[in-house]
Amino acid sequence: QVQLVESGGGLVQTGGSLRLSCVASGRTFSNYTMGWFRHSPGKERDFLAAISWSGAKLSFADPEKDRFIISRESGKNTAYLQMNDLKPEDTAVYYCVARDRPEFGRNEGYRPQEYDYWGQGTQVTVSS
Asked: Which helix (H) or strand (E) is 71 found in, with range?
């Protein structure tokens, strides 16, 4: 059983930055891809970014999403999401995810149902 624990959320003013962390535990964490989604009331879960075991990054070609930068500590069970220039519409619960595959195939990694493990989520609130 894999457990994912997010931290780093909180209240920030418009234009501010936050860095979310996700630590995985429970078994040897190798050959996993990790990612981040967010969810706000009335909306679908929103893919932000993902990263493979080798460090290949996955994201949409969306200028708005360029503010979100994923990284991963090599050889460690930790992933990060650096969030810059935050806006009130970024207010949501942010979830760390992981799946039992080391790399992304074509058109893989964008959908929530592709991930096997989810964290409890961390609230991010951006005030105007």
From this structure: strand 68-72
On the CB side of 65, CA atoms within 13 Å amount to 15
Rounded CA-CA distance 102/111 in Å is 16
End-to-end alpha carbon distance in the chain = 40
Residues 6+ apart with CB under 8 A from 22: 4, 5, 6, 7, 34, 36, 78, 79, 80, 81, 96, 119
112's tokens: 């929530």
Q: Residue 8: exposed, middle, or buried by beta-carbon count in 10 A (0-12, 13-18, 19+)? A: middle
- For residue range 32-71, list pLDDT tens digits in order: 899 999 999 999 999 999 999 888 998 887 877 889 999 9
